[in-house]
Write a structure and sequence with these properties.
35% helix, Spore Coat Polysaccharide Biosynthesis Protein SpsA, Chain A, seven-stranded mixed β-sheet, 11 helices, 22% strand, alpha/beta
């Protein structure tokens, strides 16, 4: 079976200001390498045979690469769920790991997703509070609710927490869909209006699936990862690189 992954890279990443003025967010550099390099290194080390990218803003900079390109021509007026749907041919055909374009992560997280026998799987960080405390003056202000049952079934995600007890982890922007999991998403789409789908973000989609009775499996993670949402995040992770906490992927493993 072919192991496939798709990176969702259609958005502008406007909160990175000048850094995305001339390039998509996944080409912003961390440790002297584009974020895309970090993602490809992890995905390939985890055994991904084919990797696709959904482009939109400055998608021309992603086409001339050894990747399958899916274009979201409506990237400026739609959200991430529409970008995901651009890769529907792959999602219907077999398991697909889905990665946000503004994160870096360890191969073992991807391996754990692939090894989990479930139709829809999300990775989450159990040590989220340490990372959020390093990124934000008030960690709870940017966090979202997250809870999973003892059996690993996701119970809640994506709401504004009122207390830290409501945050049992943080969703990382890494998922795996089996064809049955994607079929459940397409059934959800059939019950919604086009405008609703256009504006739906990923956690909003997951919440709706839970409300419909779909089972989503949550896989805990303690391996290194990070999200780049603002320039200060890059400063934080560059500091980790300098002190040896974070290693830049070797060149020559990606394109």
């Amino acid at each position: 079976m072919t192991n496939r992954a798709v990176i969702l890279a259609a958005g502008r990443g406007s909160r990175l200001n000048r850094l995305t003025a001339d390039r998509p967010k996944c080409l912003v550099e961390l440790g002297g390498q584009p974020l895309l390099h970090w993602q490809l290194a992890a995905l390939r080390a985890a055994g991904m045979d084919e990797i696709g990218v959904v482009g939109g803003y400055r998608g021309d900079m992603l086409k001339a690469r050894d990747l399958t390109y899916f274009g979201n021509s409506r990237w400026a007026e739609t959200n991430m769920v529409r970008s995901l749907a651009c890769a529907a041919t792959w999602l219907r055909a077999g398991p697909v790991v889905v990665s946000y374009a503004d994160i870096f992560y360890s191969p073992e997280i991807v391996v754990n997703l692939m090894r989990t026998d479930a139709d829809l799987v999300v990775a989450y960080d159990t040590n989220w509070h340490a990372l959020w405390s390093a990124r934000f003056a008030e960690p709870l202000a940017d966090a979202e609710t997250f809870s999973a049952g003892a059996d690993g079934t996701l119970d809640e995600i994506g709401e504004k927490p009122q207390s830290i007890e409501q945050v049992r982890g943080q969703y990382m922007g890494l998922l795996k869909f089996e064809p049955n999991g994607w079929h459940a998403v397409e059934e959800l789409f059939s019950a919604l209006g086009e405008h609703e789908i256009d504006k739906m973000d990923m956690t909003g989609m997951l919440k709706r699936l839970i409300a419909r009775g779909e089972t989503i499996t949550a896989v805990p993670n303690t391996a290194p990862w990070g999200e780049i949402d603002q320039e200060s995040d890059l400063d934080l992770y560059d500091g980790w690189i300098k002190n040896g906490t974070l290693a830049v992927p070797a060149q020559g493993t990606t394109s």
